[in-house]
Amino acid sequence: MEKTTIEQRLDRIEQLLVSQKEVLTVDDVAQILGTTKNNIYRMTHERTIPFYKPQNGKIYFKRTEIEQWQLRNRKASVYETQQQAAQYCINH
């Protein structure tokens, strides 16, 4: 039981450390997105996620770009849609 608690605490510490980094690795991004490294490599191969690949062949990510990528394709709430419809009716 104590080992599980220690492992959980270490996991939380690792997550806090990752949250402070600006330049991320494949492992970091997989952890942030809750997916596998293989999935991250697939996304970079398909160029569906922004990444950097300097001359050494390693893949890096910029935290702010990953956060923006996560928030793409925003969907309006029902309230926002109703407001837009009302504004459209007033203008036309």
Plain-language structure description:
The protein has helices at 2-20, 26-33, 37-46, 63-70, 78-91, and strands at residues 23-24, 61-62. The chain has 5 helices and 2 strands. It has a two-stranded antiparallel ribbon with strand order 1-2. With 92 residues, it is mostly helical. Helix 2 crosses helix 3. The model has no long low-confidence stretch (mean pLDDT 89). The protein is extended, with a radius of gyration of 20 Å. The termini are far apart. 64% of the residues lie in helices and 4% in strands. The protein has one domain (22-91): Arc Repressor Mutant, subunit A, CATH 1.10.10.
Number of strands: 2
On the 0-100 scale, what is the average pLDDT?
89
Widest β-sheet, arrangement of strands: 1-2
Helix coverage percent of residues? 55-70%
Question: Which descriptor suits the 3D outline?
Answer: extended
Q: How many domains, in number, for the residues? A: 1
Structural class: mainly alpha
Radius of gyration: 20 Å
> Could you please say which CATH topology applies here?
Arc Repressor Mutant, subunit A
Report how far the terminal alpha carbons are from each other.
Answer: 66 Å
Q: What CATH first level would be assigned?
A: Mainly Alpha
Order of SSEs: HEHHEHH
What is the architecture at the second tier of CATH? Orthogonal Bundle
β-strand percent reads: under 5%
Q: Show unreliable segments.
A: none
